[in-house]
UniProtKB/TrEMBL annotation:
Record's protein name: Eukaryotic translation initiation factor 3 subunit A
Origin species: Caerostris extrusa
Highest taxon of source: Eukaryota
Location of this chain's protein in the cell: Cytoplasm
Signal peptide start and end residues: none
A single BP term in Gene Ontology: formation of cytoplasmic translation initiation complex
Database matches in Pfam families: eIF3a_PCI_TPR-like, PCI
Record keywords: Coiled coil, Cytoplasm, Initiation factor, Protein biosynthesis, RNA-binding
InterPro entries in alphabetical order: EIF3A, eIF3a_PCI_TPR-like, PCI_dom
Positions with biased composition (Basic and acidic residues): 770-1049, 1057-1085
Example of a GO MF term: translation initiation factor activity
Recorded family membership: Belongs to the eIF-3 subunit A family.
Encoding gene, per UniProt annotation: EIF3A
Amino acid sequence: MPLYFQRPENALKRAHEFSDVGKKQAALDALYDVIKSRKHRTWQKIHEPIMNKYLELCVELKKSHVAKEGLFQYRNICQQVNIKSLEDVVRNYLRLAEQKTEAAREESQAVVDIDDLDQVQTPENLLLSAVSSEDTQDRTDRVVLTPWVKFLWESYRQCLELLRNNSRVERLYHEIAAQAFKFCSKYNRKTEFRKLCDNLRAHLGHINKHQNQQTAVNLNNIDSQTMHLETRLVQLDVAVHMELYQEAFKANEDIYGLINQSKKAPNPRLMANYYQKQALVFWMSSNYLFHAAALFRLFHLSREQKKNITADEIMKLASKVVLATLAIPMAPNRTDIDRLVETDENVIDKNNRTLSNLLGLPNPPTRALLIKDLVRFGIIQYAPPQLQDLYRWLEIEFHPLKLCSRIQQSIDFLIKWEDYSELCQYISPIKEITIVRLVKEISQVYETIKFSRLLELAPFVDSFQLEYLIVEIARRNDLQVRIDHKMQCFHFGAELNVSQREEIIEGPHLQSMISEQMRNLLVRYSSALNKASNAIQPDKLKIERKELAKEISKAYILTSSKDHMRILNRQQIIEERKEMLENLSYLKEAEEKKLLEDKQQKLREAEKERMQRETEERTKQRLLREQSEMKRKVVMEKIEQMKKTEIGSKIFEGMDEEELEKLDPDDILNKHVEQLERERRDMQTKLKKQEKKIDHFERAKRLEEISLLLQEYEQTKLKDLEFWEQHEKERIKAIKEERTLAVQERDRLMRLRDDKEAFLERLKKSRTSEYQEKHEEFNKKLEEERKKRLEERKQKRREERRTTWLMEQEEKRQRQIDEELKREREEAHAKLEEIEAKKRAKEKEIEERLKREEAAALERKREDEKALNRVKEAEKPKSNWREREMEKKQSWLPREEKDRESPRTESDTDWRRKGDDPPRKPDDRDRSDDWRRKTDRPKEGGGGSWRRDAPPTSRGNERDRDWRDDRDSRRPGDSDRLPPREDRDRFSKPSDRGYDRDKFLKEGDGGSRLDSRDRYPRGDRDTNPRPDRGGRPDDRGSWRSGGFKRDGPPPDSGVSWRDRNPPSRDNEDRSEKRGTKDAARRDRGNEEDDGFVRVRR
């Protein structure tokens, strides 16, 4: 199949064909190639059905990540052309996902058919219920419903990520957010709801940061603000419905931030819903103060903004406000030291200021202020008469003996008021407030009261709850009271020398307690005496006031001029301050402008980095896809290879092509291991048969041991009996002593038995009913908590499995990358070695060819010279025997300097120096150079002659070259030399084969040349001379020291090594006498001959 199609219609047709034959994955691949192709980036009408088919296949195959890639590609295609097409595609995608999820839900809730009615519970179900708390429905949901729920959640999240911060699809974004909230509520997905809230909060922050984009959402737009507020209110409703009050509080904060950002007043209907949910959140968090404040705001908003509000609605709201206000617990009276120390109350004050901002209140509310507002705004008059009486009895009238009975009438009214049953939630707090009021009013009348009498005055509470409330009042310094358990009474008031707080009058008040009156007695005496003195001597008071007025007028006259000048200068000071404020405002605006520019620059840079990261991520994803495709091909090749083997044919027998494509190398290896394991088990079965034989032998041995073990058992039993009798005596003695002490303790405690029994009887009666109620409540909470924890545990296990799977995938991918890198390095290394080997072979071939050509040229030259000499000798007259003897002696004399410089050829007399026999036999000589043989003579009519007086002929033919090539290339004494040593420079370091050769190059006619003085350092020849070659010093040096590579050819000087330094013809004595001069001469000759050598590449 091609990677792209010439026309998108062909891809859609091919996808339908694949779908018809059941190859949905191939159909999806074909459509994906079209969507990601750069050739089809221009939107066409055919793109929309292609995307619908693509998303339909993604839903059927549950591949949400593939759907995400396609949606992002399609957004880039149609964003600038037809954004409506993107909306339709996204809606269709979510509709398909919701339909599949709903179908899975119906399937999981279907009734399971029971085959045998006599056996409803099968053994399998009983075993599963014993090891797990899940029932059949839970297991069915996990297998059938959960994968589709996960797919639908990922679809919502991906669509929100696709449409965020895009003003063209802003309404679709908020619709999908509302659908996601409904999904969380429908399937009770609390974790996903928290993630969804976090994502929406992050998207809102992204909108604020990236306002400079082309399609960015403008939060200053009224429609955008309204949509965001509606979405947050839906979030608030769902959070309250799912009892996630922490998320509800965060939603309230988001709504408050959007309201402050808006320049226009929000819709009253939205604000009413906001205050209503706020009140519910505060009530669930037991913050009754702000619950009542939120209801106050809701009442004012409804009465002022709602046009068609009815009297019944006003009465309901007023009743709720009155009850919520009266249910607020009384604020504790804090001591002076609490205001100076960081306590819990200080933290509560800071939180109250934050909560006040959420309700739009300038200052934190208090119970006293809210009760005053009930009267000032006339809210009490809208409430029913029974609630008005409740307010009057709790806050105005002082009658402690009838307070609880009157409050009970209002409570009965609330219980019977069925139309507004939600008001019953305020009954419990109002009872607690009633008990507090009762105790405070009784403390103003009585100094001591019996516990039983107080229970008679408060019939709707038990003794334990009453005692708890009184202790809590005393702990908060609201009341000075002491409990006397011995006398079963309460004592009000404290010592006269102790004052914990300043008395604050709140609610109905008759008089202060006796202790407070005695403590303030001197203050009252002082005020009474001052009033009496003023009444007895009124003239004296008038005189003192007149004198004080005169002194005040004198003081004013002294400072009147200064005051007048200060008033005159006030206008100038005001103008200067105005100018200063304008300058400060200008500087502040300039600084804000600069900060804004810097912020926009940072935003642009951040956007650029984000685009770069996205590009890198797309490239990475593409490479991953290519790697996966390559991996699939490798797996298929490996499977084909294994099928040819005996074990492989057994492993893959019965598997179709689709199952083989799903296998990875690890699965193949596992199957191979399993096959080997089966063969191993067969082998173990054979071994077990042999083991039985050994087992019978072991049994025979143990039968023989039985008699010995019985004897040892009898001895051990006697020893244990003696040990037990000794310890039993000690135990009986200790028990008797312990019982004596226990009897004494019992007699001592019997005196307290009656008091204990009375206390326990009273406590049991008071706690029995409370225990039953709390026990039922506890069972309900326990069941809810058990379900919650099981769900959390299931989610945790799912996350752990996912994390483990991701880690294994990452390790697997890393291993593949490492193996690929290792293979590439080995291939590169092998290629480099192959290139080097070819290079060395080529250089060696060139070197050998050059040597052959040079040797052939020198041989031709020598043959020409010999022929010329023979001609000259033939022309000279014949000499006598004396001249011939002189020539023979002359041949044994040392050569002259000019002869040394000429190339030396090996003559027929060299056998004398070598110590060999003369070459007289024809078999000892090479037949190729026997030019005197008759077989080599020219035929008649030829151009040559074998006689000495014949004309010279050319000997540079092919036969002569073969004869020259067959000669021995080694000189005498080469076998005595040591192997070549490692050349080093004058700093005792190995010669660098790769150093810069340009500094040694010199330009010449034939190319670059290398100076021999640089190639052969003098220090090496002086300090480390080479061994003698055949009794003569070897001064040739090493061709490696010239900076050439180890595997490269030696430098070509143009002269053969045989002719570079010909051997001396003198005898041994003459060599020793002239050794120094000849060595110096040879060195100088070598430098002259080899001063420059041609560098051949």
